Amino acid sequence: MSVREELEKREDRDLAPYAVRSFRTRGRDYEIEPDELRTEFQRDRDRIIHSKAFRRLEYKTQVFVTHEGDHYRTRLTHSLEVAQIGTTIARALGLNADLVEAIALGHDLGHTPFGHSGEEALDELVPEGFRHYEHSVRVVEELEETYLYLGHRGLNLTWEVREGILKHAIWKNELDQSRFRHLEPDLLPTLEGQVINVADPVAFISHDLDDGLRAGILREEELKGLGIYKALSGGGPRPWTRKVIPFLVHDVIEHTRQRIKELGIKGPEDARRLSELTVSFSPRVKELFTELHEFLFERFYYNYRVLRMRQRGIETIRLLWRTFTGDWRLLPPDTAGKIREQIAALPRDIPAEERRLLEEKIVQEVVRDYIAGMTDRFAFRTAAELAPPGALPN
């Protein structure tokens, strides 16, 4: 018996009936030989970690632009924190922690530079809009080039990991039902995917609170009126901010256990066909979380220092988009080559106006992918090379 087979046997023995088994995956777009040492979801985790898109997350903004300080979270550290929180929840619920870890590490691969400011800027500029969770799927299905030597693009991940990546933010964003039909956007994700819908906000609410205090934008005195402060500030020497994650995670585990029992969830598909997420906070703790989230929006995310960083990122994205869609010959040769190849592949007998529109669409899509893949510092450096003096804010 191989190591993988031993791991699969352990999965089947130890996981809850409603957990996804790696050996029952819906599979990959391109068939590959099973690995002797890793389950399918462990293999996906490793493919994500070794991708270029994952490495670039180190230099992509969470809230603070990367050069603002060495200790603020980046998109990479955020993804690692989501994985840590998610696997803790998964193990407590008897879910497949390997699947949760793979989704967590891949959930933001398609994020723009400059955090949500960059995403909003591209969403404003790209005709069909831009959503980072959709672009993350595009990264793992189409844009990564690791396996070109095998004749296909993308990381060739399992269906369950890709579904979880697409649906990791449905707690706050409704999916477009016309996009990514192969990932069943009309259904909720697996319970493992639902764990990320909680682990993601738990991670950012706690680390943004910590970063805001570290930066001096938030003050302890301002926080004393919050319900979560009152719930966690008493007893022991441990700072109350260090208790936020354990408090939220414990509540999710206890409340979800109760919901699974009440809803009669027996198998992996049961929770996907319900009308609301099973993995969730209790009503009381959800109120505390929402109050803290709204407080951070008002006092942290809309603070003038953060807004200045945000505006600088937005203006950088706008300049790059205008410049490259205006003259795509300014793109690097390998990126411009993608445009040439796609334009050359257009039928020769189509009407001139139709050709013009198709060529414009090709340029916009390649430029979108190029900008979305940039790190903060690469975007700043590229914009500085293209902008006239004084065109960008310092």
Distance between the termini: 61 Å
Q: In the residues, how many domains can be counted?
A: 2
CATH superfamily of the largest domain: Hypothetical protein af1432
CATH class call of the largest domain: Mainly Alpha
CATH second-level architecture of the largest domain: Orthogonal Bundle
Descriptive overview:
- By secondary structure, this protein is mainly alpha-helical.
- It has two domains: 3-301, Hypothetical protein af1432 (Orthogonal Bundle), CATH 1.10.3210; 306-386, no CATH class.
- It contains 17 helices and no strands.
- It has helices at residues 3-14, 40-49, 52-56, 75-93, 97-106, 115-125, 132-143, 159-166, 191-214, 220-223, 227-232, 244-263, 283-301, 304-326, 333-344, 352-372, 376-386.
- Helix 2 runs parallel beside helix 5 (97-106), helix 6 (115-125) runs parallel beside helix 14 and helix 14 (304-326) packs across helix 17.
- The longest helix is centred in the middle third of the chain and has 24 residues, at 191-214.
- It is globular and about 65 Å long.
- It starts with a helix and ends in an 8-residue tail after the last helix.
- The relative contact order is 0.12.
- The mean pLDDT is 93.
